[in-house]
Every structure is written in structure tokens, then in C-alpha cells.
Design a protein that fits this description.
With 309 residues, this protein is mostly beta strands. It has one helix at 4-31; strands at 35-40, 49-55, 62-67, 73-74, 80-84, 88-98, 101-111, 116-120, 129-134, 149-155, 158-159, 174-178, 183-193, 200-209, 226-227, 238-240, 248-253, 259-265, 268-270, 283-291, 299-305. 25% of the residues are buried.
Length: 309
């Protein structure tokens, strides 16, 4: 007979599962609206920037206008190119109609030829590892795509030396970087046009990299209590964000206390299979995460595998 306590846990976890799924669907729908922007080449990046704007709205939405944030507007082209005469940050608004109703989406745009984006590495979600990408949005690090633009990265004032094309093409516009230390780190990208090489521009951002060993051990955050490894690419993995430097021991036990999965790695990404590579049945499992290097407090808890097949 199933214990009442486990029935309560199962009901609670299922409620969480369905609420997360609904929230994700709603968020996905919202994320299809908006616009993207990328930089275009200018001869003198210190005098301004040129930006291309592209709508990301589904049919049958209707383009209305752009407000570029510097007093200029456009009602002619949905895919617009605008030249800024100063290097600054602007609030750009994209106006459109959807279901005959007026809608506006506003985003910050960095009119700076050295601007860059950052994100976690989606393969590891390690907090010490970042993907930095020039806002020119070159699809890859191909020197033929650079045209006349050149780039140089530095971290905490030190120019990086291992992200270079062959001379004279400078450094890659897109890099994957692993921070050496937690805490506040400063990343700067310098850009220039070889037709006017003395006119260089920089863009600097600070990142608070966690955990920071100086301030003590950190707690694992956003540890999932349910995931759905059914191949639909939505919550298919039990993933925990780590710094990518700690050796982590991850153990999973069945409700009867049997060890069904164990792994030691710098990352935690579990697909719901046992040590023999077989799918574990739906249900509640108990996990333990131990940090062998002392960056994190050890943690434990329950996770529900919901396959929905």
C-alpha cells in the first residue's frame, strides 16, 4: 500500500509540473513577439553607429512604425537601418498591430560598435563560463565576414591572447571564456575599422560571477523538483547551474533507498536514466549533490520524473 505521505508529495509535484508547463507555454508565446538588432560597419565608430532592426512578430501582425529613441522614426520599412550620430544607449520602440490592436515593444539598444551580448553556455550552464558575442552578430568566427572591422577582448584589464585570427585580422568577435575568479569581473571589447584605425571604441560591462569563495560557500539555486524526460525538448533534463570548476558527486536513490544513478562531473545534467542507461520509471526520487572542492554547500532533496507518455 502506498503511504499517504508519498501520495501528498506526488500530488504536490504534479501540481508544480503542470504549473511550470503552462508558464513555459505562455512565456514561449510572449517571446515570439519583438525585434532583434545588430550592428553594421561604420568607418568612424567613435562618431556613432549603424544598426539594423528586424521584427520578430508572427503573422498576421502588421508593422506600424519604429521609434529609434533619438528623435527619429520610420514608417516605411519593417526591416529598418538607422544611423546614430552619437555613441549611446537608446530605448527603441517597435510599433505594430496584432488582431487590430496597437502594440509596442521597447528594448534597450547599444549604439556602440563594440557592444556585445553575453549568455551562459547552454551545454553546461556553468556560471564561470560565458559566451560573449559581438553585437554585429557574425554567425561564426570567419575572418572573411569581418569586412573592415577588427576586435580585441580584455578581462580585468588584461588583453586575451588565445582568441586570435591569423595576423592582421585581430581577435575573434565571438568567444567562450572561463573566469578564473568569482566576484566582480570586468569585460571590455574594443573595436575599430581598418580604414580609420586610430578611431577605436570600447564597450565595458561588469559581471558578478558566483559563487565567490571569498564570501563563503554558496547554495545551489533553482534546483528542479520535477522534470519530464520524454524527448519534447521541454524540461527533458534535471539540470543544476554550477560554476563549472567544482567536482560534483551526484547520486540518485529510489524510494526504497536503492542507489540507481551516480556520477562525478563538473556539471549536473541528468536525463532520468539509471547507471545502465535505462529509463527510470515515473515517480519520486531522492538526490544528493556533494561538492568535493568546497565552492557549494552540499544539498539533497526530492525530484519527480514525469514522462507524460
Amino acid at each position: 500500500m502506498q503511504k499517504a505521505g508519498f501520495r501528498r508529495i506526488t500530488i504536490l509535484v504534479l501540481m508544480v509540473c503542470f504549473s511550470i508547463s503552462n508558464a513555459l507555454i505562455a512565456q514561449t508565446a510572449a517571446d515570439t513577439l519583438g525585434f532583434k538588432w545588430k550592428l553594421l560597419e561604420v568607418v568612424d565608430p567613435t562618431a556613432g553607429a549603424k544598426v539594423q532592426f528586424t521584427p520578430l512578430i508572427p503573422a498576421p501582425s502588421e508593422f506600424t512604425s519604429w521609434n529609434f529613441g533619438d528623435g527619429s522614426t520610420s514608417t516605411t520599412d519593417s526591416i529598418a537601418i538607422h544611423s546614430y550620430t552619437t555613441v549611446d544607449t537608446f530605448n527603441v520602440s517597435f510599433n505594430f498591430k496584432i488582431n487590430s490592436k496597437d502594440s509596442t515593444i521597447t528594448r534597450k539598444v547599444f549604439a556602440n560598435s563594440a557592444a556585445f551580448y553575453d549568455r551562459l553556455d547552454t551545454n553546461t550552464k556553468a556560471t564561470y563560463v560565458r559566451i560573449f558575442r559581438s553585437a554585429f552578430l557574425f554567425p561564426q568566427n570567419d575572418k572573411l565576414l569581418l569586412a573592415n572591422m577588427r576586435f580585441e577582448w580584455s578581462v580585468n584589464g588584461n588583453i586575451l591572447s588565445d582568441n586570435n585570427f591569423d595576423s592582421p585580422f585581430g581577435q575573434y568577435p565571438n568567444i567562450r571564456y572561463t573566469f578564473e575568479n568569482g566576484g566582480v569581473n570586468t569585460v571590455t571589447l574594443k573595436a575599430w575599422n581598418i580604414l580609420n584605425p586610430i578611431k577605436t571604441i570600447t564597450f565595458t560591462r561588469q559581471f558578478d560571477i558566483l559563487p565567490n569563495p571569498i564570501t563563503g560557500k554558496a547554495q545551489f539555486t533553482n534546483v528542479p523538483n520535477v522534470f519530464t524526460p520524454n524527448g519534447d525538448n521541454i524540461f527533458d533534463f534535471f539540470e543544476v547551474s554550477t560554476n563549472g570548476l567544482s567536482r560534483l558527486v551526484f547520486k540518485v536513490f529510489s524510494r526504497s533507498g536503492s542507489l540507481v544513478y551516480q556520477n562525478q562531473s563538473y556539471y549536473i545534467k541528468w536525463d532520468g536514466k539509471n547507471d545502465n542507461g535505462k529509463d527510470l520509471p515515473e515517480g519520486i526520487y531522492y538526490y544528493i549533490i556533494e561538492d568535493l572542492d568546497g565552492f557549494y554547500e552540499n544539498t539533497k532533496g526530492f525530484v519527480y520524473i514525469f514522462r507524460g507518455n
